Amino acid sequence: MAPRPSESGVPSETDVEAHPANRIGTAPPRTRAWRRGELEAEGFPVTAMREHLRSPDAVVWLDLCGARHEDLGVVADELDLDHVAVEDAVSRHERTKLDRYHGYAFLNMYVPVVDGGDLTLHELSAFITDRALVTVRQDRGFDVDALIRRWDESAGPDTGGTGAGFLLYGLLDLVVDLQLDAVQALDEEADEVEELVFGDAFPVKEIQRRSYRLRRNLTALRRVAVPMREVVNTLLRRDVKLVAPPLTPYFQDVYDHTLRVAEWTEGLRELVADLLDARLALQGNRLNEVMKKVTSWAAIIAVPTAVTGFYGQNLPYPGFAEHSGFIASTVIILVCSGTLYVVFKLRDWL
After folding, report:
1. Which of 90, 207, 279, 285 lies at 20 to 30 Å from 10 by C-alpha?
2. pLDDT one-digit tens code per residue, 15-36
3. What CA–CA distance (Å, rounded) separates 348 from 344?
């Protein structure tokens, strides 16, 4: 069955003008319904979710952006959601977690975006039932169109019996891939910092600024990415019953990617710590080199100072007030200073 086209200009976006009750959050909600793995409808009103779910082989998705607690009332009524889970969905800065309720689960996670060395975390929540997935975004930082494209590429008749599991797989797979992209970007930033540390220019202030920023970003990414291992591992448990057996290998692949993100993040944190230690060691070595050169030049300068000071005494000495005395003092200065310079140069003190 071909899907009914949405009345708005954006696919799957509901028409808030035709349905005023759909004014939820900072953007029009987006809805889709599948039957036996094939897209059946999109852009329908939020209140029509229950109607679509009456079909035993239908799967429904609803996306909300910037929704408040009172905005989720109609969704909570449609899916019988607990007020505690609704409160977590609209609250900011919740930790990455998976909470199980009677008949559904609540998932909270973060989508990282690295732009110019700065890391931004976009919070994303989801309510998961056997045949429905509701995503709640705090802002528009998460690309919903990319998620829809991923579903369209993977959906088909073979996913018809997996319920909302295939929607959840596409969501988790995209989020973990974005976390991998963020780690990759931070890895490239670490390479640039490493080049600065071991380069000849050695800009101390820039190295300090970029290294501490990188370490802060890695700490923030680790805080939201490492718990994803436990989230996916919990979904793979048979008693949870949110993942159909045909989808187990796919979720196992997502779990492997979460392990890679965690290990990569930990490795980068250790690398940054080593770079900071190397920076301090190199800075100390450069200071020692400078002090060695300054001391060597001071020794060279001490020779003419001593000679001129000696000949500047108000006492007669060989060559006093004579041209030969000036020549003798000049020769002594040049020979002694030159000898010290050669010796220091051979010992790499200059």
Report:
1. 90
2. 766 666 667 767 788 999 998 8
3. 6
Whether residue 134 lies inside any domain: the answer is: no
User: Domain for residue 185, yes or no?
Assistant: no
> pTM score > 0.70 for this model?
yes
Closest CA to 183 of 127, 235, 258: 258
Query: Which residues of the chain, if any, have pLDDT below 50?
Result: 1-8
Return left, alpha or beta for 226; rule: phi > 0 is left, psi -120 to 50 is alpha, else beta.
alpha
Four-point Cα dihedral 92, 93, 94, 96, nearest 10: 130
Return d(Cα 1, Cα 17) in angstroms, integer: 26
Is residue 333 in a domain?
Answer: yes
Question: For residue 154, what are the CA distances in angstroms to 87, 157, 254?
Answer: 32, 10, 15
Please say whether the beta carbons of 58 and 131 come within 8 A: yes
Residue at 320 is within a domain: yes
Give the domain extent around 312.
Answer: 295-346
pLDDT for residue 349: 64
